[in-house]
Amino acid sequence: MRNRTSVTKWNLVFHYATIVIAIINGLVIVPFYLKFIDTALFGAWLATGNILVWLTIIEPGVGEVIQQKVASSLGSKEYKNASKFITSGIIISIVISLIVVLLSLIFQLFIVQILNLSPSIDSKELLSAFQIAAIGTGFMMLSYAFVGANQGLQSSVGIGLIFITINILGIVINLVLLFHGYGLISIAVSTLIRGAGIFLGNALYLAYRMKRNHLGLTYNRSFFIDFSKLFSFTFFSKISSTIVSNIDLILISRFVSPETVTMLELTRRPIKIIQGFTDRVSVAFMPALSNLKGEGNIIKIKELFLKFFLIFSWVSIFIIFGFISFNKNLLEVWAGKNLFIGNPINILICITLLIGSFTYNISNFCFSLGNIKGNSMITILKSIIYLSFVFVFGTFFGIYGILSAALFSIIFSEAIYYPKKIVSLLEVSKKDILPLIKENFLLITVGIIMSSAFHFFAVEIEDWIDLIVYASIFTLLFWGIFILISTRLRIFLKDLVLKLKHSKLESKL
């Protein structure tokens, strides 16, 4: 138990470090991109990034499956199966990564036509950057199997240190090349460094972990075939998920403009990054949850889920209403004027990300409990619904229709399936769920009141100091009101204070 707890804590530390790195990559560096790279060219680059992601759809989520299977095997003490899962996963990842790189290098021949680029955009620089990024993406995909195996072996510190070190190196080289006039090439080289470095680091670390745990690479043909069949579900799930996640920017680039792509991406990027802080918690739990499932300790998993969902609701809903209130001001202070896409679209983005974040975290619990096929099937269903809506809605309502299609697809698939599935897997009762529903209702009510008040008074924010001051006032009022009306939060805070006092007394003794 102590090892699982330690692994989860370190996973949380490194996952949050990942978010900080994402903030640097996605927020801090962006003004430099806009300074050294033409806006239209940068918008085209964002769209080509979507194309590159599309070409990775044949990767069926090997890392996640290996993590679940290896962790569960260790929990049930089936060490030979753990070795077979690792070996099979590595073989599959090698083949897939080579195919993806080859397809990427072929596909780049058609990028100019697909994006309908104007002659004023430097397509030569764009294509060169794409080729370098494609190789880096291949290395990153190859690393998934090794990272998943390390996570399944309940590793955490080594994986985190490798990730942070390589990403810091990539950021430094990115900035150096950018300031020396390499434009998009600097971003592509950074992608290559991250992919190759994370692959090599995790491959060496896996060799060390397997030797330490007295495991070897064991290939069994019939086992490999049976394991590969599982990916028939995850393969189509990955294809559909990739389409849903990345088609919007391509459609907007083609039918509206690359500049609108930049506005949309910059408007939603801060929300997605900060929301990632809460989403990372369930990801950090996953190796331990699978290990607990292998032991058959469902009661402990249920306890963790209920506690997680309560805290997640508090934090996530607060974050979303904060962005409804201040995202325009944040974007103006951070990246400049005239880049905010508008309040109606911002609200639509926030609602979609909030609901999607809830279903995503519940899906992680389901996946950790072995619901791999079910998760895959519901992802496919979501994609079918999305594609049924996106072209029709996009034709009649433009960007509003394209974004609304994503919301509809989540509501009519994941939002219906995952709550019912987790209740079934963990035998959660109405008595457990009703207090959580009440808490969410109270949170949303407070959020609507606070956002409406700040919108009504229309405070003027000119710089970072103004933003910090008004955001702090919003935070204090939000939590002040919520503490007054939420009995569960008051009990939680009281228990937290008592635990902190108890830990201090123990440390003194």
Structure write-up:
This protein starts with a helix and ends with a helix. With 509 residues, it is an all-alpha fold. The model has no long low-confidence stretch (mean pLDDT 83). It has a domain of 183 residues. Helix content is 87%, strand content 0%. The protein is globular, with a radius of gyration of 23 Å.
Topology overview:
Layout (H helix, E strand, L loop, with lengths): L1 H27 L1 H7 L2 H16 L7 H14 L3 H29 L3 H5 L7 H30 L4 H23 L4 H29 L8 H35 L2 H38 L2 H37 L8 H26 L3 H40 L2 H13 L3 H28 L6 H22 L1 H22 L1
Mean pLDDT: 83
- What count of helical segments does DSSP give? 18
Runs with pLDDT <50, length 5+? none
Question: What share of residues are in beta strands?
Answer: under 5%
Helix- and strand-based class? mainly alpha
Whole-angstrom Rg:
23 Å
Distance between the termini: 24 Å
Beta strand count:
0
Task: Report the sheet with the most strands, covering strand number, pairing sense and barrel closure.
Answer: none
Shape: globular
Instruction: State the share of residues found in helices, binned by percent.
Output: over 70%
Order of helices and strands: HHHHHHHHHHHHHHHHHH
Which key terms come to mind for this protein?
509 residues; globular; mainly alpha
In short:
With 509 residues, this protein is mostly helical. Helix content is 87%, strand content 0%.
